[in-house]
Specification:
The longest helix has 17 residues. The protein has a single domain, classed as 3-Layer(aba) Sandwich (Rossmann fold). It has twelve helices and ten strands. The strands form two sheets. The protein has an eight-stranded mixed β-sheet, sandwiched between helices. Strands 7-8 form a two-stranded antiparallel ribbon. It is globular and about 60 Å long. Helix 3 packs across helix 4. With about 300 residues, it is of the alpha/beta class. The two termini are about 25 Å apart.
Length: about 300
């Protein structure tokens, strides 16, 4: 396995450090993946607690002859700079999509990569955005969606906050519920607002209602309806952030007539595709602070699917 340091967006306002991971003994151009982060700010390994999902995937795929590119998320490196820019209204495009397209272009320009066999692996919100990234310049051979959701982001957030409240002790629940409900009310009637009106509603941490409005229209289902490329939809059955019995089922329903879509459900895996420990959203921090790595079965499924759709 070879690991080379790279720079995404060199010469732009927001350069990002990354790593290109290549299989050993390259003799012909190889297939490759671009790894797209979930929500929040994270480094190129998508580190959360003691987990490093993107590092696990990159190194695992290299052993199977598949290259990858991963990089620090823009909000992880330049978050404060973005928030302070009075001329910038942050959306998924500025936070995620633009850099994903730049990373893809860098990957496709490398002579060691088969540019006709480049895929996107989107995890969590990265999976939700994968069809949009493909449509807005990614132009991948196929899409791999890990723990994504076809639902609107604010709906998933509302569900997660409600579950978290339910799992709190009564005193903490009473303290937290007021501020949470106040924040959630900001989503009421959001899609009836003009873009300029939505931009004025602050949700928190430099995010506005327009961020969610932009994410929610077109819907994921609408992007998927226009995308007929091969897809691999992966989900952990013990995921407490997006749900196998809701989100995974929705993907199956939306894509039920496609014969080039593969679905993989892993019985004891959580949102990070490692073994479930506590299984409660209120114990997410403890869950992700248990050191684990993505299993070879998950890596082999990704590599095997890539091989199948590129033969």
């Amino acid at each position: 396995m070879l690991a080379e340091n790279i720079l995404i967006g060199e010469g732009t306002k927001y350069p990002l450090k990354g790593v290109l991971t290549l299989p050993d003994n390259l003799s012909v151009p190889v297939p490759a993946v671009v790894l797209i982060h979930g929500s929040g700010s994270s480094n190129m390994d998508e580190k959360v607690g003691k987990l490093t999902p993107f590092k696990d995937i990159a190194e695992g795929l290299a052993r199977h002859g598949v290259a990858s590119i991963r990089y620090d998320k823009r909000s992880f490196v330049h978050g404060l700079k973005m928030v302070r820019d009075k001329n910038l209204t942050i959306t998924a495009k500025e936070e995620t999509i633009d850099d994903a397209v730049l990373a893809t272009q860098l990957l496709k320009s490398d002579s060691r990569i088969d540019s006709s066999k480049v895929f996107v692996i989107g995890h969590s919100m990265g999976g939700t955005l994968a069809p949009r990234i493909d449509a807005e310049g990614g132009d991948y051979h196929g899409l791999i969606i890990m723990a994504g959701t076809p639902r609107r982001l604010e709906d998933v957030m509302k569900e997660q906050l409600a579950e978290n409240l339910d799992q709190m002790n009564p005193i903490l629940r009473k303290i937290a519920s007021g501020s949470i409900n106040k924040m959630l009310k900001k989503f009421d009637g959001m899609y009836d607002l003009s873009d300029e009106e939505a931009k004025k509603i602050k949700i928190g941490n430099g995010t506005t209602a327009y961020y969610f409005k932009d994410m929610g229209q077109p819907t994921v289902a609408e992007y998927l309806a226009e995308n007929h490329k091969p897809m691999l939809i992966m989900q952990g059955a013990k995921d407490f952030q997006v749900k196998a019995d809701v989100d995974f089922v929705m993907y199956k329903e939306i894509l039920k007539d496609r014969d080039n879509v593969t679905f993989k459900l892993y019985e004891n895996l959580n949102h990070a595709f490692v073994n479930s420990v506590y299984g409660l959203i209120s114990k997410a921090k403890q869950e992700y602070n248990t050191e684990q790595h993505i299993g070879e079965n998950v890596i082999a499924d990704i590599a095997g699917w890539i091989k199948t759709v590129t033969e």
